[in-house]
Write a structure and sequence with these properties.
With 369 residues, the chain is an alpha/beta fold. It has 2 domains: 258 residues, Aldolase class I (TIM Barrel, Alpha-Beta Barrel); 67 residues, Non-ribosomal Peptide Synthetase Peptidyl Carrier Protein, Chain A, CATH 1.10.1200. The protein contains 15 helices and 14 strands. The strands form 3 sheets. Strands 4, 5, 6, 7, 8, 9, 10, 11, 12 and 13 form a 10-stranded mixed β-sheet that branches. Strands 1-14 form a two-stranded antiparallel sheet. Helix 9 links the parallel strand 11 and strand 12. The longest helix is centred in the last third of the chain and has 19 residues. Bound molecules: flavin mononucleotide (FMN). The site of flavin mononucleotide has 25 residues, from loops.
Length: 369
């Protein structure tokens, strides 16, 4: 088994390509060239890595950060209720000591629990506290958390007020445009959160009923951006540099947040950030570089989480193995790996039969999950 681990080099080798990008209007371009100000926190990137439950652990964030060192990252969502009952903090709250900027995302519906959890999150090193007001999963919404807060703006506002009063760092929220097609209340809800003291709002352009289906409606993000003074971050269907630019132009948002586009592709946030900062497209990784990244991801997850890391790595490996002959067969095998060696060997075998110059990544138009 031979595994080349130095992806730092790969990051530097990604030169600009000649493909033209959609142009940003000059006023937007110069606004986006300034730091993103989240209350007292200054972030030197307009591209954020979203919280993704089961994905954005410390290992994944290390990979994303390698290509986007200045971007804001989020932990997976953390249950405030669980924190109330346990003495030892869960692994999802672990943050690298030098990991900046980082937000810890919390969910629940009880302001006092969230305030207590936020204090623990700040002690862990959180630069901001984000409240999840968008999760569509029944397990969360039936207890009044996640997107069900869209139907209870009073509680949502009280959460922001209470948590803001409890911690010295900015409190932000991430939400959707409404509960359902018939009940889109993004504007009123966003205004309410701003008045309650939220320092930034991330808006996913889907309703709760949509789940992750259909397309994100960025027009609501544009309306909310116009109405608020705090930064508004656009989220939903950002799968490429071009999509990010289109979204920024259409919404005039203060930044974009990448989500499913980063699954098996921790290069995306960096690619967009690089373009916004330099006006040049970074050459996407080759298939071989992606598979090397998959090997490294597997090794790091196993080191960090042991056996459960290997089980968790299976889905990541399958996400990386896309876009070349034999990928489907490789995915099948990767989904069953029981050891780091087995996974690395499978990936190594694939690498040896792929020609070195083979296919660069072509941006996805749709989500893989
Ligand atoms: C597997 C998965 C896990 C997610 N976990 C979270 C989470 O913990 N907190 C959160 O606010 N959103 C979570 N989301 C929602 C995403 O952050 C994002 O809002 C959504 O995927 C829309 O963006 P996209 O169309 O670019 O994927 C999750 C989405 C997926 C697919």
């Amino acid at each position: 088994m031979s595994v080349a681990l130095n992806l730092d080099q790969t990051a530097n080798q990604h030169h600009a390509t000649n493909q033209p990008c959609p142009a940003l209007s000059p006023a937007l371009k110069s606004r986006l060239a300034t730091p993103l100000k989240i209350g007292t926190v200054e972030v030197h990137s307009r591209v954020l890595q979203s919280p993704l439950s089961g994905v954005t652990d410390l290992v994944f964030r290390r990979l994303v950060r390698r290509y986007a060192p200045q971007s804001m990252m989020y932990t997976e969502m953390v249950s405030a209720a669980e924190l109330h009952h346990v003495r030892k903090l869960p692994q999802v709250m672990e943050v690298d000591p030098d990991e900046r900027p980082i937000s810890i995302q919390l969910f629940d519906r009880r302001p006092e629990f969230l305030a207590e959890a936020a204090k623990k999150a700040v002690a862990q090193g959180a630069d901001t506290i984000d409240i999840n007001m968008g999760c569509p999963v029944n397990k969360i919404t039936k207890n009044g958390g996640g997107s069900s807060l869209l139907r209870d703006p009073d509680t949502a506002a009280r959460i922001v007020e209470t948590v803001s009063a409890a911690v010295p760092v900015p409190v932000t929220a991430k939400t959707r445009i409404g509960w359902s097609e018939e009940d889109i209340n993004a504007l009123a809800f966003a205004r309410r959160l701003e008045s309650a003291g939220a320092q930034m709002l991330t808006l996913h352009g889907r309703t709760r009923s949509q789940g992750y289906n259909g397309t994100a409606d960025w027009s609501w993000i544009a309306k909310v951006k116009q109405a608020l003074s705090i930064p508004v971050i656009a989220n939903g269907d950002i799968f490429s540099v071009d999509a990010a630019l289109d979204c920024l132009e259409q919404t005039q948002a203060d930044g974009v947040m990448c989500s499913r586009g980063t699954l098996g592709y921790p290069f995306l946030v960096g690619e967009i950030d690089h373009y916004l900062k330099t006006g040049e497209r970074r050459t996407p990784p080759t298939v071989i570089e992606r598979l090397r990244c998959a090997q490294e991801h597997l090794i790091m997850l196993a080191e960090y989480k042991g056996k459960s890391g290997i089980r968790q790595a299976r889905k990541h490996m399958a996400w990386y193995a896309k876009g070349f002959d034999g990928a489907a067969e490789l995915r099948e095998k990767l989904c069953r790996i029981e050891s780091v060696e087995a996974g690395c060997d499978l990936l190594e075998d694939a690498i040896t039969v792929i020609s070195p110059e083979s296919c660069h990544h072509s941006p996805r138009k749709t989500a893989i999950v």
